[in-house]
Amino acid sequence: MIQAHNVLQIQTPGRGFIEITRDIQSWVNSCSIRDGLLTVFIRHTSASLLIQENADPEVTRDLERFLARLVPDGDPLFEHRAEGADDMPAHVRAALTQTHLSIPVIDGGLALGTWQGIYLVEHRTRAHRREVVLHLLGE
């Protein structure tokens, strides 16, 4: 067994879904590990990771509208507003989604389904620089 790790720096434009599948696959291709398990982890509490359909952009737009309805900015329920009306809603959205993913690597490729892509989901309304940690363990 061998392992490899990397940190992707992703600049987000603000709230939304940023597909990072190609960046991750490119890094996996650069590793000498052909079969194993990839862990993808985001180092933030107001952004998250999702595996979701990447064929139709309406899917991510619909998900964003659903999250906006479920956890609206400025909801008076929330006391934490240290960085604005979107601060606590961003934390709740991240809590409802995922901070890490486990993806099998088979023959050097991500074992994703035909229409699956890996997304960094920015929950804050302004741009941020996000770090995504990649850890590949295998042979």
List the helices and strands and how they pair.
Layout: E1 2-11, E2 16-19, H1 21-30, E3 36-42, E4 47-53, H2 58-70, H3 87-96, E5 100-106, E6 109-110, E7 116-122, E8 129-138
Overall pLDDT? 97
What letter string, H or E per element, gives the SSE order? EEHEEHHEEEE
- Strand tally is 8
Given the C-alpha coordinates, what overall shape results?
elongated
Q: Major β-sheet, in short?
A: 5 strands, antiparallel
Helix and strand composition category:
alpha+beta
How much strand? 35-45%
- Total helices: the number is 3
Radius of gyration: 16 Å
Provide the helix percentage: 10-25%
Q: Flag low-confidence runs.
A: none
Query: What spatial order of strands do you see in the largest sheet?
Result: 1-8-3-5-6
| Terminus-to-terminus distance | 5 Å
Compact summary:
By secondary structure, the chain is an alpha+beta fold.
Notable characteristics:
single chain, 139 residues, alpha+beta, 5-stranded antiparallel sheet, 3-stranded antiparallel sheet, 3 helices, 8 strands
Describe the structure.
This protein is an alpha+beta fold. Helices cover 24% and strands 39% of the residues. The chain contains three helices and eight strands; from the N terminus they run ββαββααββββ. It has helices spanning 21-30, 58-70, 87-96; strands at 2-11, 16-19, 36-42, 47-53, 100-106, 109-110, 116-122, 129-138. It has a five-stranded antiparallel sheet with strand order 1-8-3-5-6, with helices on one face. The longest helix is centred in the middle third of the chain and has 13 residues, at 58-70. The model has no long low-confidence stretch (mean pLDDT 97).
